[in-house]
Amino acid sequence: VDATADTAEKTVLFSILVPPTPLEDVVGVFGPLIPEASGAILEGTLGATATLAWPAGTWTLHPTAQDLVAEGVLPPVDLRGGPFSWTAPSKEGGALRRAGEGVTGWVSLMDAGLFPDAVIAAEDSAFAHHNGVDLAAIQAALDRMATEPDGPLRGGSTITQQLAKNLFLDGQDRTLVRKLRELLFALELDQSLPKRRVLELYINVVELGPGIIGVREAADAYFLKSPGRLTPKEAAFLASILPAPRSMGNRAWRSGRVNHIRVAAVIDNMADGGALSPDAARAAHNAPLRFVPPP
C-alpha cells in the first residue's frame, strides 16, 4: 500500500497492489466456505490494483487474471445431454425441476427462435470469446459502481456464470465467497461444454418471471406463443427483464409498463451482432408489445 498526500486539497490517495496470486491460494483463504475447491485442480492467477481517495471516498479497482483453470468442482451431474435435475426458484423459495432432452418443455437452440441472440445481446456480447469469465465486463461493472455508488449492484456476470448460479448456488447474496464459487463453476462449465450447450442450458433454466422458468414457459405466459414464433421485439423484451425478472415481468404484465430504453438497447445490440438486419431492427423498434393477461 502506498499513500500520497495533497496538502492543498487535504486529500490522501492510497494505492493498493495485490500481486498475481495463484487461484488455489486465493480460494484456499476461505477454506470450507468454498467446498467445491476440495480436491479440485485450480490453476492461474488473480490480482488487482486499486486506489482510494480520502476523505472523498472515491475509488478505482482493476482486477487481473491469467490462465485460469478449474477442474473437479462441478457436482456429478451430466449436462452434456439428456435429463438433469436442479433446484429452481419458486414462490415458495425453491423447487426441484427437471430439464433436458426428452423432458416436456425442453427447447433446443434450433427451436428457440431469436431468444438466444437476444440473451447474448442483453447479457454477454463477448460470450463466444471468453473462457466463462469476462474481465472487461467485470471492469465495466466495477467502474459503474465507483461512479454510481447508489445505483444497482449488477453486471459483470457472463451467461456461463449465470448458468452456474442457477444450477448450483442457492440464494441471491453477492458476497466475495459466492462470486468465487460462481467463478470456479463457470470456468469448468466453459472448459467441459461447448458454447452452444451452455447457451441451450441457460435458456431452459433461467427465471423469466414469477414462477416462470425457461423460454418455453415465458413465451407462452407472456405472448401465448412457442419460442420459435417470438417476434424480435418480444424476444428482446424477455431478455431485457433478466436483471430482475419477477418485478420487471410483473410490472409489464399487470400494468403494461416496459423499460423501452432497455428493450431498444437489446434490439440495437442484436443488430450490431448480426442477428437482425438494419431493416428488421427498425421494424422491431416500431412493433407493438401485446401481452396476454396474467394468470
Describe the overall structure.
- The structure is a single chain.
- The protein is of the alpha+beta class.
- The chain has helices at 23-28, 115-123, 135-147, 159-168, 176-192, 195-205, 214-223, 232-240, 245-255, 260-272, 278-286; strands at 2-6, 11-22, 41-54, 59-71, 84-88, 95-99.
- The protein has 11 helices and 6 strands.
- A 4-stranded antiparallel beta sheet has the order 1-2-3-4.
- Helix 2 (115-123) crosses helix 10 (260-272) and helix 4 packs across helix 5.
- It is globular and about 60 Å long.
- The model has no long low-confidence stretch (mean pLDDT 89).
Poorly predicted segments = none
Distance between the termini: 57 Å
Which value, in Å, is the CA radius of gyration? Answer: 21 Å
Order of helices and strands: EEHEEEEHHHHHHHHHH
Strand-pairing-aware structural class: alpha+beta
Please work out how many helical segments DSSP would assign: 11
Q: Which range does the strand content fall in?
A: 15-25%
Largest sheet: 4 strands, antiparallel
Helix content: 40-55%
Global outline = globular
Mean pLDDT: 89
